[in-house]
Amino acid sequence: MAGNSFGNIFKLTTFGESHGEAIGGIIDGCPAGLSLDLEAIQKEMTRRKPGQSAIVTQRKEEDEVKFLSGIFEGTTTGTPIGFIIENTDQKSKDYSHIKETYRPSHADLTYDKKYGIRDFRGGGRSSARETACRVVAGAIAKQLLKDIRITAYVSGVGELMLEKHYSKLDFKTIENNPVRCADPEMADMMEALIRNIRKQGDTVGGVVSCVIENVPVGLGEPVFDKLHAQLGKAMLSINAVKGFEFGSGFKGTRLRGSEHNDLFNEDGSTKTNNSGGVQGGISNGQDIYFNVAFKPVATLMQKQQTINKDGQTIEMQGKGRHDPCVVPRAVPIVEAMAALVLADFWLLNKLSKL
Amino acid sequence: MAGNSFGNIFKLTTFGESHGEAIGGIIDGCPAGLSLDLEAIQKEMTRRKPGQSAIVTQRKEEDEVKFLSGIFEGTTTGTPIGFIIENTDQKSKDYSHIKETYRPSHADLTYDKKYGIRDFRGGGRSSARETACRVVAGAIAKQLLKDIRITAYVSGVGELMLEKHYSKLDFKTIENNPVRCADPEMADMMEALIRNIRKQGDTVGGVVSCVIENVPVGLGEPVFDKLHAQLGKAMLSINAVKGFEFGSGFKGTRLRGSEHNDLFNEDGSTKTNNSGGVQGGISNGQDIYFNVAFKPVATLMQKQQTINKDGQTIEMQGKGRHDPCVVPRAVPIVEAMAALVLADFWLLNKLSKL
Amino acid sequence: MAGNSFGNIFKLTTFGESHGEAIGGIIDGCPAGLSLDLEAIQKEMTRRKPGQSAIVTQRKEEDEVKFLSGIFEGTTTGTPIGFIIENTDQKSKDYSHIKETYRPSHADLTYDKKYGIRDFRGGGRSSARETACRVVAGAIAKQLLKDIRITAYVSGVGELMLEKHYSKLDFKTIENNPVRCADPEMADMMEALIRNIRKQGDTVGGVVSCVIENVPVGLGEPVFDKLHAQLGKAMLSINAVKGFEFGSGFKGTRLRGSEHNDLFNEDGSTKTNNSGGVQGGISNGQDIYFNVAFKPVATLMQKQQTINKDGQTIEMQGKGRHDPCVVPRAVPIVEAMAALVLADFWLLNKLSKL
Amino acid sequence: MAGNSFGNIFKLTTFGESHGEAIGGIIDGCPAGLSLDLEAIQKEMTRRKPGQSAIVTQRKEEDEVKFLSGIFEGTTTGTPIGFIIENTDQKSKDYSHIKETYRPSHADLTYDKKYGIRDFRGGGRSSARETACRVVAGAIAKQLLKDIRITAYVSGVGELMLEKHYSKLDFKTIENNPVRCADPEMADMMEALIRNIRKQGDTVGGVVSCVIENVPVGLGEPVFDKLHAQLGKAMLSINAVKGFEFGSGFKGTRLRGSEHNDLFNEDGSTKTNNSGGVQGGISNGQDIYFNVAFKPVATLMQKQQTINKDGQTIEMQGKGRHDPCVVPRAVPIVEAMAALVLADFWLLNKLSKL
Hints:
By secondary structure, chain A is an alpha+beta fold. The first copy, chain A, has helices at residues 38-48, 108-115, 131-145, 184-199, 227-236, 249-252, 257-260, 327-349, and strands at residues 5-6, 11-15, 22-28, 65-67, 71-72, 75-76, 81-86, 101-102, 149-157, 160-161, 206-213, 241-246, 278-279, 282-283, 288-294, 303-308, 313-317. Chain A has a single domain (5-349), classed as Chorismate synthase AroC (Chorismate synthase, AroC fold). The two termini of chain A are 31 Å apart.
């Protein structure tokens, strides 16, 4: 209700502020009997963590997840999985300069007005640090989903757009470059662009694409909890996201029905996939694919005018350690949220028919 | 859980198939003491109903909503509002030809596989007829929201895109043309395009834009139930929707932070509004605006190849009465879903602080 | 949230006032493929309906349930099951005398204060008429549960208490007497008592006992949604209920652990069943049994002092047609609520382990 | 869904096993701006903790709660409150003897069958240790409820029943005796009984009564989430609880309506309070009072026959440190659960009318 839970059956509830002692969460509804690969979970954390390359924030967090319950001798027990991640690099003084300040295009003003109080240290709850908990839960969801393969990659940084169809890309290259672009040549250009923008103390937006292969037919709960609607909500709930489209997306609006319809093969698969793997809110067994738009990071290493709590104009400049572009680190978060949605619907779908 | 409810506090649950006796719903959580304008509700129904103009489906439904509870002497009582809308124009035989057939880019196959049974008459539950119930609930939500003004309009039909900023449009013109475009000249072109496409037995997609004015600060429940995340889910749950973007949207991904940041005025309002009225998942008091992408209708009045339940290739052609383009009738649905989201968050926000 | 839904997966939402046009509900989450025996549903309705015998209210309602969706050719489709029951015997004028009056031990004052408005006709939403919808849903739940046998019966009317263990009773006799007591001799005495009390214009309380046989191990979701906790809530949500105990109940508090513990047989069954079929909130395969306490009906056919809205003392006397004792008609309601709880947990339990 | 959350708005989710590293929880939905008295919270923990007197278990736990989020400079921020309580006295080896054993009247068999795996150390999740988290959340709820006074006390131990009406008791004496009985004389007898039973290696059940004073009119959400129904569920979800009754309870079933009805005073209060402060599921402003039945603890310091996983009969005897009677330590848990229910409904009730 108060917005810190996600999912129906496989349900994640998170807590924690950027600069508190720890963040963490509870996963309720993970079935018993799942033998967990804890290293694989930590590996996902490492993909998201700060300081992993020269083009991301240099905040130093080990992001080591500590499980407190729900796992016995390496296997889930069906009881809630509680976990925490310590904030080892809390430097609260970094933020004293914004105590009274509303930073432009941050959540400072809205949190303050909504709650009447604000933990100003590093954005508090509104910081993207919170997404670390999503990655933990998503990593477990991935293991539950076994053969379903979820792959996200960067397809846009600023004006650089990777237009190639995903079937033409080699997903194995994604982790070979710090941008997490699935095309090495484009990756180089994107990296150069980000480095350049960082030098200017500026930031840039981008697009993350995601492909989900090997999806069983039947996932999604119409009419409100359609598969793509829940995926959309999941993605839009990630910090800095401005848009979501799946299948033919916005471009599909320009087509005629005779162009857009996906004709069937005799086995029930389709010759084209403008539907993006979803029909009527339910997976149809084809690949699911979608794009997620991220705005440029709001914290600049440039001077900006803004206001303080009293409505006075002041000048400020970002301090601390920030990402010039979030999309490289957003890739595992997009995958995690997709995994949470699919795990939830995969469980729910077991109850669809007798 | 099974997907037919929307909202937390102001909660709509719907039922009904396209060709059953009636569809309907229950609104639970509408506060007592709201004096309802029943005519205004019916007026919204009329904006959505079939047969309203030459460019929409000619199915004949009065779409008269009948309230069964929760209203006493014109005022809400705080108890659940039950309502039904009769299906007066059920022509089940129209659909006998698709009993064994999976229509391309419809939900026939996915429903059949998920549930093991399918009410094939007119798409059954997957028909957009279900959205009539959303319009009822949305119309009540609008009355609850009083001064918050929600305006949707058609901004794209096929390749015709209305690029003007919404502040340049005269919203009063929207209901003056059958397309519900907010620009009369563009409206004429769009209408001509739709008529032309209909003649070919084809269909076309489009875009609905929505602007919400006079929004109080504080709506939205991060970190998962962010205002724009819930708006996105609401829109994506509407039949035929393929994408959602708010504020700067996908275009915003190409900007630099120094271009994208919305600087504050001294009263806390912002000089620009790339944020689309939402910061950190909470309304900031600026206008909320977003775009919703609709695919072309899948039912064509042309011959198409498809398969039947046994996987045999057959040829089919749409019969009955279908929309060549859904966006004109989608306008009130977009508004209704936006109203549901806002009403829910408006109520929840009363509990944010002591 | 606003309290008119029950269940997690198999979820009932109801609407309707005693004297509106109709009451009804939506069952969301019933799996597809359940072939429904509609006569059996109607039969449950008949067990609850007014006018069925000389010792219950003489209000005349056919209580014919009309299904509007979710069933196709006699089988559930997995989509929400919408239904209505018309109020054919609405006599609103019967209640004009209480328009301004708060009846003692009714919900008149509390509804008025909570909502600021009251549908005074027959108690409005607070009337037990609402339980008809529970019986519809419970009857469907019963069919879903197949071999699980739920049997309720009257075990107390006023000072008359049936102390025999349920294994000594012949459940086949329950429907042979208007009291629905499982012991013919006691049934006669109870009937005589109720007739006598009715003559005096008075009312009396009673106890309904319920036994659930053939329950699989594993139902219930600790730590909060324990099987008996949800059963307790279900029963306490029925009008006029004042208490719930299961297994050894209140008497069990007086025993020593060495007397109370249920020792195991080698097959995992237990030699005694003080646990009432539930251990740690999860069914253990033994019979579940519990008692539900009902207070005497508040509407008397005697003069009583009370107050009106302005706080003035007035004298009133019940008019209309009321039950002198609710327990005979409560029997099918208790069964229905038990069925709803079990169906919900039976579905959820499919997700407990891989 | 998976049963580890309680509440709608003020929502507690817990995790943790008896012998894991820590237990903990998340409170989501506590409004911002509540200035917390952390000492008062810890004091509630101390009332529940083991080792507090000679008649309770001697397990040594400091039960120090550590808040990780949601509180800034002593005040709630509206973001989720995460907390943990370390298990400092984990002695896992104490339990190796029950690894393969199903203890009578414990949840060993049911957890094992439901989940296919069991954390056998100290009952794992089914241990009452979990209730420590409820006390944390309840203590915060109490502070939110301010003037509403919730008082629980022991009214029964075995055959010793305190029959005095609560208005005749001096609640200040409750914490003066280790039994937490509100009558000093009875307290002495109860303590003697418990000591005697402990010597025999046996255990005994009991009753906790609870009185809630100064309750505003309007709490409760009919028709399913009636105030007393949710209170009943809350109590029944506590380990070892077998029954719940409020107001006149089971005894009320024997009364006539003319005896049971609570006549009004002119100010809307009632001359009697058989209703127990609730009418139609909504608080009426009178005192709420109820009784909760607890069974005797299942772990005996005597030899008992039981079975192991393979269905072989074996003999066992409780080791470790167990309570001979749970009711003294259950008192703060009953209060905590009552506080959770009231806080939730107190918040929800703000939305009942415009």
